[in-house]
Amino acid sequence: MKKFSTIALLFAIAFPALQALPAYAQEQKASSRSNKCAFLPDAPDKHVVVKGDTLWGISGKFLQNPWCWPEVWGMNREEIRNPHWIYPNQIVYFDRTTGRLRLGSPVSGGGKSGTTHLTPQIRSENMDKDAISAIPANLIEPFLSQPLIIEQNEMATAPRIVAAPEGRVTMSKSDKAYVRGDLQGGTSFQVFRPGVPLKDPETKAVIGYEAVFLGTVKLERTAKTPDGVDTFIVASSKEEMAVGDRLKPTPPTPIFNYMPHAPEQAVNARVVSIYGGVNQAGQNQIISINRGSDAGLDVGTVLGLSRFGQTIADRTDNKKMIRLPDERYGTLFIFRVFKNISYGLVMQVTDTVVVGDLAQSPE
């Protein structure tokens, strides 16, 4: 009986603490979220969506970190991946009680004349010209469907232009092009020329080639004999095509309206190149990094840009070498993902981006 009383007493002491654990965990989780996904002190009560708005721009009106949009919206991972269109005249409403954003539409009825009610409404349907995008679409549209990265195995197997009529060297719009290689049943292709090899800043290995997009071709007639060629017509031409240029199947029309979001797992990447062959990048320019789908990146992932802290001599301690902390200076929005390389739009920076800089999970 005495033993039982001791156990009962211990349980009675411990039970309130056990009950408090879930509440404490929730409080800690909320505190962690509030630190990184805090609302701006002067955040408005609502924002009426207008033509030209972007998810990034709207979230910047409410949040210190625009990439926290899905978290304060209360969206799960599948909702982030699926297009959720927001249209002009809808209302983004800040619910200060719950610390969440809500989407509504002003509708009349159900009350006094002139009263406006917020009706929750998120439409999931095919993209149309009125839906707002995650970031300024005009900055990246040319890069959504044109080939950017060609991996080495693709180079070896890609169909290639082997000749042009009448011994011509180059081809442009409406010209014929003779092609050899496995078309795999395709009829519409993009034409590219292998460009600059991209090297991983860490391993120094070539991880892909930045392709030069030349135009598009459409199949007119297939080869009639094993040693024959397929005949194509140049449908569009950005630059003149030549013998040796390669073909890549035209990808489906991209649907681009992924929510800005932090990666699910830790990402430690490096800047591989700055598009256009320049040495530095600023806001609204495009860069590539040495991580892709294999590292869990997807369209809409937001990363922080940093520069390695300098190693300097400590003048207060016999000039011993010390390393300063990495300096965070901007954010990167990933909009196209390959296996080992991704392309991103530089969104906000206080310094210039250079090759070798860090691209990591946002703090």
TrEMBL record:
Instruction: Report the domain of life of the source organism.
Output: Bacteria
Which N-terminal stretch is annotated as signal sequence? Answer: 1-25
Instruction: Identify the keywords attached in UniProt to this record, alphabetized.
Output: Signal
- Residues in domain LysM? 45-94
| Xref: Pfam families | LysM
| Entry-linked CDD domains | LysM (cd00118)
> What stretches pass through the bilayer?
none
The UniProt record lists the keyword Signal: yes
Its recorded name reads LysM peptidoglycan-binding domain-containing protein
- What taxonomic lineage is listed for the species of origin? Bacteria, Pseudomonadati, Pseudomonadota, Betaproteobacteria, Burkholderiales
